[in-house]
Amino acid sequence: MGNNKGNEFGAFLAGFFIGGLVGAAVALILAPQSGEETRARLRDRGIELKGRAEVLSEEARKKAEELAAEARRKAEELAAEARKQAEELQAKGRTVVEEQKSRIQEAIEEGKEVAAKKKEDLLARLEREGKEEAPAEAEA
Questions:
Q1: 119-137: per-residue pLDDT in tens?
Q2: What is the residue range of 12's domain?
Q3: DSSP assigned state of 32
Q4: What helix, strand, coil percent values describe the chain, rounded to 5?
């Protein structure tokens, strides 16, 4: 967007200079004067236009510098915002990882408890079955 304004300003300046030069040349050529007077007026007009061109050139340079500084400032703001969002996402990611670690740890603990209970149940069952078989063997 800012670059487009610079292009428009440059085109305006070019048109202004060309129009000024053409207008001055036509006015001097068509004016009823001697050759020496015409050359003197052309020289004076050329000096005047050169001074204007230098002023406008300086203004254009300053405007370009201002636009470049503004573009740098906006780029820095966007970069800072992107860094901030990346840091926020990273923090959220850490939180999710910690939550998942906690859930996995809880699941492991529950699995251990269930396995221990199942082991106790199986041992108790084997013990009961072993006691039931022992009296039968004693009778035999």
A1: 999 999 888 887 776 665 6
A2: 2-106
A3: -
A4: 95, 0, 5
